[in-house]
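Fold sample X.
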Amino acid sequence: MTNKPKQLPSKSTRSEIDAFLRKVAATSAPRSRNQRGRLLFAMDATASRGPTWDRACHIQSEMFTETSALGGLDIQLCYYRGFREFHSSPWLSSGKDLLAIMSRVRCAGGITQITRVLRHAIAESKRAKIDAVVFIGDCMEEDVDRLAHTAGELGLRGVPVFVFQEGFEPIAEQSFRDIARLTRGAYCRFDAGSAQQLRDLLGAVAVYAAGGRRALQDFSRGKQGVVPLLSSQIK
């Protein structure tokens, strides 16, 4: 018997990792022509989020309107707030139903639970395909490595996360960019005072969830501002 040490495998190169992610994405079942898109709409509902929540309530119905010609869209709302509160709605197929749920929610003080959002997205994607996740938040108060690991797991399932940051908190920005990168999604900051920016961003992601990258490119053509920036990040 020899005591020759085992040779450890070398670390994967970036190109090998990218190739693996492309292979995983290629194995995703294509949507049938009449199948509706599915979008998980996640929001931070802690105390600082009150004004943005109210704005989102008023513009969310347009997410359905933008996708009507692409076969439609089903949306599930999930949010966290307070002390370990986490809630998710049934899958909804109309803006009226989504508005009814969102209008009953009141923001409450608490710390972020973004990792929990990503774990919930993983669980939902195991039940049925999810085309995209939207997350809207302004800060991050969790373990960075654990958050990145969970985002990587979601990315391997072929679920892109579109992260929209309100404000300029630098720690949150780095984590949000990592989530977008690890899931092959996109990151964008929006101005807290501009409802139009948020409307454009949500409309763009709804179009992507319902019709894919080509539909988003068509939607972005001729537009200015944040929408082309978002579209350019999709690989």
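Fold sample Y, listed below.
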Amino acid sequence: MVQNPSPTLPPPQGAALVLFSGGQDSSVCLAWALQRHARVETVGFDYGQRHSVELEARLAVREAVARTFPDWAPRLGEDHLLDLRGFGAVAASALTEDRAIEMTASGLPSTFVPGRNLVFLVYAAALADRRGIDVLVGGMGEADYSGYPDCRQSTLDAQMRALQLGIERPYVLETPLMSLDKRGIWALSHELGGEALVEIIVRDSHTCYRGDRTHLHPWGHGCGDCPACELRARGYEQWRAAT
């Protein structure tokens, strides 16, 4: 077990709901939220993704974080898993169907699930309303985002304004990774929890679009050649080379 490595932060305040897939980015967001909020709940989404192994990774990451960081463990609240398979069937992509991962005629990769983050935020906001939570935390970012338009700050600002008006709640969306590339995200994970958190992300989180958990690389499990693996591997190598 290790202690919170940033004791100089202000005392944790309020509650937050982390959009938590079990991937690298959302795992770092979970640690970031646990440093700053007194109660942190998590929500995951089953939208029929091919890499559904990430749903198991979610639980492994939560358990490892609670076990390894005793300062954070009491703040880790309930986990919620929402069924969005109907949406996944409508918004078919290479993440929900057995098709090639490639660039499409629209200029977006075939892994793009149209409106996915927007739908996630609607469901998360509805859950947060019932849980008495105003702060949502998401791992969206504009640096390494594969061109997905629903990762852009302008898109998220518009969606949050709509949710504030439509639910009449003063929601805030915290996006600590918005300006970070994968190298920066690895660096942030080390800043938040040292090598212990890096090891949890390597061992327990899941990013690979193909759902490969049979190959363990220095940067984690994955096929090694899908876009998600390539981003994660390149960022890890760049970060390690700079430390």
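Sample Y note: The chain has seven helices and seven strands.
Also: The CA atoms of residues 41 and 78 lie 5 Å apart.
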